[in-house]
Amino acid sequence: MQAPQLGPSRPAPGPGVPLQPAGPPAGHSYPSAPPTSHTQAPIPPSSHTQPTQMHQQHQHQHQHQQHQQQAAAASGVVGVGGGVGGVGGGGGQDVDMTVQSFAQWLTEMKSSSSASLSQLLSEMSIIRDGITANNQDLTEFKRHSTSIQTQMQSQLTDLREKLGSAFSEISSLVKTKASSDGEFESELSTLQQQAHYKASELKALDKAYTNTHQQLQSNLVQTQNTINVTTNEIAAIKKQSQTLQDGIFQKLGDLDGRLHELSGRIEKEKLDGNKNVAAVQEEIAVLHEKLTGLSADFFDHKRITTAALNRLQSQVWVLEEQKKKGQAAQQQQQQQGSKTSLL
Predict the structure, then answer these.
(1) Residue 208 phi, psi (nearest 5)
(2) Full DSSP string of 70-91
(3) Where are the compositionally biased (Pro residues) regions (predicted)?
(4) What DSSP state is assigned to residue 272?
(5) pTM to 2 decimal places
(6) Which parts of the chain sit beneath pLDDT 50?
(7) What gap in Å lies between CA 238 and CA 211, rounded to an integer?
(8) Domain ranges for the chain
């Protein structure tokens, strides 16, 4: 900063003219205050001592500027005093007015510096408040993030537990399905064995019936009428047996088709779990009921056939007894005739 230059001396005013403060000489101006920058560099949130250091540096710079201004003013006053000694006593008032103007300028500079300092301090206070608020927001965000992380960890733990329980349930369902399939296969094999046994029994009965019928046809020549009635009954029984056999074969075919359909349905619906098991159990119950009905029909047919065979055998036995009695009577008559002829 340069001290203001003194202009040429002016004549002293008269006795009745009041003294006016002299402004700067023509072509000269007092140095203005250095421009203050209201835009401060951003302060990092982690530095809490930087605003105080900046304030101290600003105070040191301000004091240094004041010392330079005072030194420049003193050198200017000295130069003015030397000039006054050469000019005369009339230039003393101009020097006083210049000093007053310079002092006024120093006062304005001081007030401007104080205003700039106050504004800087207020801005620093605002920045400090903003940093504090940001720190509070950061703390709140950390707390909220911690709570969210804890909640997510608890939810993940619950999901893992639920997943484990789901896997255990799936394993139990698979075991139940395997056991149900085994039971169904065992029951199916048992039913097939029973059906095969019933078919073999039916064939044996049919064969026995055929043999008996042939024997009856060869032995019952004299009792044709009775045999005709018996033959009609046997034909009716045979027709009934054939109808029953056809019904059994048809039911077995339906059962086989249903079993194939059930097998396809089981293969298709393995993932349905308890619903498929319940449906299979219901179908097994229905099949069991149908097989029970077939067994009852078969036993009824067997009972009817046995009764018919027993009745036929009894009739044959009666006819044989009658035949024997007739032959015995004929023999007796022949013997008596031979005796009478001999006599």
Answers:
(1) -60, -40
(2) HHHHHHHHHHHHHHHHHH-GGG
(3) 10-24
(4) G
(5) 0.24
(6) 1-52, 74-90
(7) 13
(8) 189-342
